[in-house]
Please model this.
Amino acid sequence: MTGLLIEILLVINILVFIYFLIVNGSYITLIILSYFQVRDSKEKENIFELSGLFGTTLYPSASILAPAFNEELSIIESTRSLLNLNFSDYEVIVINDGSKDRTLEKLISHFELKEMERHVPFRIDTAPIKAIYGSRKHPNLIVVDKENGRKADALNAGINVSRKDLIFAVDSDSLLEANVLKKMLIAFTLDQETIAVGGVVRVANGCTFRHGVVEKVSVPKSVIGRIQAVEYLRSFLFGRTSWDYLDSLLIISGAFGVFDREMVIRVGGYLHDTVGEDMELVVRMHRYCRDHDIPYKIRFLPEPVCWTEVPESWSALGRQRNRWQRGLADTLFRHRGMFMNPKYGRLGFFAMPFFLFVELLSPIIELSGYLFFTASLILGIINWPFFLLFFAVCVLLGVVMSMLAVLLEELTMKRYERVNDVLILTLYAFLENFGYRQIHSWWRLRGLIDFLRGDKQWGEMTRKKTF
Amino acid sequence: MSQKKILIVEDEEMTARLLVYRLKALGHQVTHLSNGIDALDFIREHRPDVLVLDVMLPGMSGFEILENLNDQESFDLSDVNVIMLSTKSRPDDIARGFNLGALEYVPKPFKMEEFLLRLNRIIAD
Amino acid sequence: MLLAVMTVAILSLAFFSRWRLARREEKMDKIGERLGELIISYISGDLSIEFIRQVLKKRMDYIVMMKMIQSLGEALEGKEEERLQELMDLESVRNHFLKRLESGNSAQQAKACLYFSRKRLVKERIRKTLVSLTLESEPLLAYAASMAVVVHGRVEEKAEALRTSIYHEGLSDMAISDLFVRFTKQGDEYHQEEMRVITELIREESLPSKRKALLIRILDELDYFHSVDFLTRFYRELDQANASPPVLVALIHVLTKFGVEEILRDVHRIYAVSDDVRIRETAAWSMGFFLHPESLPILKWMINDQDFRVRFQAVTSLCNYPDIKPEQIRSVVIGESEMAELIGEITGRQ
Model:
């Protein structure tokens, strides 16, 4: 009996080890791919700037959709920053999603808004719109006052109100760099089959801003902020650029993505009953286009940057990660038909399995790995030296990966100007493997359990900090 | 010629640098801003003698800046000599500029000598 | 153990390259800053070209310089622009880009092509290289090479480069329109030659209809009013039943803008009842342009269209009629409050 148990444990240990090798192997591949992709897109941008293409009049026009819910403190600043972008044909649509504070009043008085007539064809169903406001002072600002729905509902309302070619979904607590729209549109100008483009989201905590424009970039002050700064670098630059290289980008951050408006309407807009509406929409667009044989491109650009404030408390961060995990689970579950389905090519064979096994199920495997290893150690199946060696390999690989992310990002994008900042980030890339990584796994495991129990709550307070 | 306070509002960096260089060489006190909102605040606060204004600007267009200044009762735009300098130079753009109180409208691309000549004429008046 | 050594090795390597890169970028920033100052003093006539030539002998960031020259070139003319040209003609600058043109790396080649497209003259040999690069499949390179050929090529080479690019599936409408805009800038004020090239392309049977529509719109964007005769003829000869919607939409649009009122008959009879939403929308727009009394009942009928965009355009066009009072517009499909909103938006906009 004990013999069988030992056998089983041994097999499990080996499986965990193999899993571990696959995961890290794929991460390293992704990092290498992303390096090429980033270099390539920098070259393209260079050529683009030298060409006359920024001057053509045929650019698509864009509506920026900024849903706002109880944001009286930051709404003026963030709206002003949106009005400040360097682009010719765009409008800003702020959607007040039934705020209970003075968000709307603040907007009305600061921008001298007047209620105006504007017909809204309800091409996507949303909660009723109460009124639409415009401003003589800022002709490209529209404020929509609607009854409370979810963020997805607010975005859908914005899509209905918009009359432009593209929609640009942002969080009203994120700040964009002034040339962001132009840079995003490079993708649409280079290739007309482009239907969606995502950009990099970075941690704003610690940076200084003026008029909603980044003045000085530096790392966050707190431990939790710094760890997240490393995480964001890793997930955006390496996760997403490399998936872009493989034409299999599955996530575009809800805080920062440009979409072809008609295409979004055709697939039915954002979904109301999911917590991961941003990822879900992208996957649905992939699926729709492949099902209908529409040639398309969904791109990620490493250059346009949006700065967002991240949670500074452990409990808020835990809830956020729990929600992300549920969103991921929900999206993968809804579109399980794409899994290993040859119709969806690389999406079905690489991207979906990766997200399932590496992103979604990793907390189970990682945490149970810890358990089994400890059990094996106690039962004497593996000896201390092996245990220590394996543990060291795990940690070192994790460390190398995070640190490479930081350093490679600095090689390619170089946003943090002070070497000190880079050192701090590298240090945290090292430290996050001890403790934070395990806590993070725990949150994600909880998220997975909550998903299986059918929990679709957003979690209080964190609503505005969404991706 | 007397020294004047000149504000240049232009978002294309090299063009702005060139203008600053030439106007400083003529002995003027020159400020450069590249953003419409900043420019509006600056004009209200510092009241420059001459305003060199581009139309297409981030934040607020050159026309909107002039409209805002015209709307404001405490501000007399006739104290500020406005020269528009823009690639937007269809007849209706130019008319709009003059209606809003611009004294000159220089279409881009422009000849530096001609621009300075027009500027001097305004200052002399 | 081995892994630990490797980790340390990778990290120190990464740190080292980061440090080197930081130093190089710092140097480049300084050069860029100084280059900017030099260029400005030079084109203001305060520095001689000789002086610049001396400075440029050292390693320079030519791409930064190209960007500076380009943005200044767009803003300036006259003496200053000529000085910029002299700067571009400097031997060291030319050699730099010549080397890149022959490098085989498509991104570098594309940059070099854009450099040559800004120059006044290029040598025979370079021109031939540029022409051959227009056939590349990499879109940015094909675009950049065509740009240079459109400026420097012989008449038939220009036409061929444009033809290649309009058939190039990787090139976007924006890139193609950009090429044609540049093409037009080269010609005389009558644009006979340019128009001949474009019209011959439009007549090509094998050209995909989206591209055909783009070319028709380009005629409008370039203000080629004298293409009216060609367009009218092309329209008359068109096989109405089999014509593709994008081409029809483009034709209705451009012919309307050029004031060809004879199209109105077909707008009334055929396009206002087309199955295609975009055609109906364009038809409604066209009627609002000519404001012919005969269009009135058709527009009034079109505000009951099943598609919002057509209704919106029909109401907008109706509001253009001087003797129509917006409040009088009634529709079966649109409710009173929706109509009030529509009219509010349209009249508020005007």
User: Anything to note?
Assistant: Chain A touches chain C through 43 residues (CB under 8 Å). The mean pLDDT of chain A is 84.
